[in-house]
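Hey, can you fold this one?
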Amino acid sequence: MADAGSVQVWVAYASSTFEYLEGMHVAPGTTIGQAIEQSGVLQAHPEINLVTQPVGIYAKKKTLDTVLRERDRIEIYRPLVADPKDSRRKRAAKKEAAK
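Sure. Predicted structure:
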């Protein structure tokens, strides 16, 4: 149960095999990093590395010291499997070869 002075946020993380979405109430002034630690996602999924994995709020990258606002959804992004530029080049080369 939330008290009147708390802020409601969600922490989201997904891999190819599972999804994690945890709603929680935090104190005003709580940062992204603090909320992630409080959520328990780091204990449940030790593969998460906040040093190398970016985080954001609603698909906009943010730093761990960003202060949260009501109804923010904190997202922990996975490392890229392939470089997007390389993927585009390969698709373009394949398309050109098909002509």
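The radius of gyration is 18 Å. Let me know if you want another pass with a different chain boundary.
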